[in-house]
C-alpha cells in the first residue's frame, strides 16, 4: 500500500524538480503520482482549492460555523443537524443565496467535527 502524500510533499517535490531533479525521481522519492506532479507543474490546482468556488458558503464562514458547533459542544449543548442547517441557511440568506445540502460539505472538509 502506498503512503499518502501531503501538499507539503508536493511542494518539496516541485522544489526538487526546480533544483534539477528529474520528475520521475521526485515522484519516486516523495511518493507522488506522476500525473499529479505534471498537473501541478502545468498550473493545475489541488482538488480542494479548485473546488472552493463551488462551495455554498465561503471558507471563512464555514470555519465560523464549525467554531460555533465546537463551542456549543463544549458547553454541553451539541447542536442538532436541523440547527446547523438553519444557521447555514441564515448565512446564505444574508448573501442572497440558498442552500441544498450544507452538512455533507462541512463535515467532510472539517474533520474535527
TrEMBL record:
For this entry, the protein name equals: HTH psq-type domain-containing protein
Q: Which Pfam families match?
A: HTH_psq, HTH_Tnp_Tc5
* Organism placement in taxonomy: Eukaryota, Fungi, Dikarya, Ascomycota, Pezizomycotina
The species this protein belongs to is: Botryotinia fuckeliana (strain T4) (Noble rot fungus)
**Top-level taxonomic group:** Eukaryota
Q: What region holds the HTH CENPB-type domain?
A: 59-93
Against InterPro entries, the record matches this protein to: Homeodomain-like_sf, HTH_CenpB_DNA-bd_dom, HTH_Psq
Gene Ontology molecular function: DNA binding
Question: Which keywords belong to this entry?
Answer: DNA-binding, Nucleus
Boundaries of every HTH psq-type domain copy: 6-48
- Key word Nucleus present in the record? yes
Task: Note whether Nucleus occurs among the keywords.
Answer: yes
Gene3D superfamilies hit by this protein = Homeodomain-like (1.10.10.60)
Amino acid at each position: 500500500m502506498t503512503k499518502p502524500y501531503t501538499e507539503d510533499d508536493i511542494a518539496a517535490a516541485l522544489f526538487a524538480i526546480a533544483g534539477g531533479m528529474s520528475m520521475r525521481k521526485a515522484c519516486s522519492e516523495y511518493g507522488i503520482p506522476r500525473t499529479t506532479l505534471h498537473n501541478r507543474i502545468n498550473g493545475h490546482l489541488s482538488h480542494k482549492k479548485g473546488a472552493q468556488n463551488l462551495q455554498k458558503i465561503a471558507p471563512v464562514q464555514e470555519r465560523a460555523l464549525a467554531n460555533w458547533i465546537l463551542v456549543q459542544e463544549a458547553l454541553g449543548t451539541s447542536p442538532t443537524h436541523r440547527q446547523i442547517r438553519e444557521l447555514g441557511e441564515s448565512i446564505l440568506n444574508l448573501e442572497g443565496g440558498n442552500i441544498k445540502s450544507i452538512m455533507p460539505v462541512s463535515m467532510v472538509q472539517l474533520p474535527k467535527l
